[in-house]
What we know:
The protein is α/β, with parallel strands linked by helices. It has a single domain, classed as TIM Barrel (Alpha-Beta Barrel), CATH 3.20.20.70. It is built from 12 helices and 8 strands. Strands 7-6-5-4-3-2-1-8 form an 8-stranded parallel β-sheet. The structure holds 1,3-dihydroxyacetonephosphate (13P). The site of 1,3-dihydroxyacetonephosphate has 14 residues, from strand 8.
Amino acid sequence: MRKKIIVGNWKMNKTHREGMEMLVHFLKLLDLELSLNEDSGKEFPEIVVAPPYLIVADSAVLAQGWDIKIAAQNCSSEKEGAFTGEISASMLKAAKVDYVIIGHSERRNYFGETNQLVANKINRALESNLIAICCVGETLQERESGKQFQIITRQIQECLFHLNNDQLSKIVIAYEPVWAIGTGKNATPEQAQEIHKYIRSVISGKYGKEISENISILYGGSCNPQNAKSIFSQPDVDGGLIGGASLNARDFIDVVKAIL
Ligand code: 13P
């Protein structure tokens, strides 16, 4: 059965001190409010926190012994060498990072990342045994002209379809409609379900039903404690990639609770 996963993407927020304080606060709330749930028979989600690079390694140390995992928000498409300012997938793995977000729309829009570059980064992540969270999603203009299915199909084909079955099973897909990110205008549960079901069918067309049923597909875009439950209750939504609401320990715990 596929995993439920909630990922908090802090983006470029929090100094080292702020980040560590927030993480300690979050872990205390997790212990107080959710440890009982682990024995309740309810399926407990994988909780993943994606802080900025400077906090990643210490967060991973802090996370040891807790039931949370750490993600990076990006990695280099190169293995190593003269690439000033870059961080490689193998460096992240050595820092005890488990996941890496790849192809976020902010990286695509502000840093010119193409599907080809995303595919290369996914290869580096898999070579280092990281779980890659591959982000896809359409812009408002693409949705308004009815192109969302076409855009998402292309992103999936060009970012993922070079992988074999075994490699694909180490991928998580995040559907993040660009028009919903940071806008306060989330996709409705029905809109999210429609696209998630479609993504699963695209995966099924290439990799078969069993693999498509086992891949986790997360929703991201203005997901918060108020709307999370209705979005997560959709059959093809396996969790969330949470931006703004993951910056506050209370809100992030409430989003996690919404999937229980
Ligand atoms: P918001 O939750 O702030 O809309 O951000 C979503 C996102 O981009 C997570 O990666």
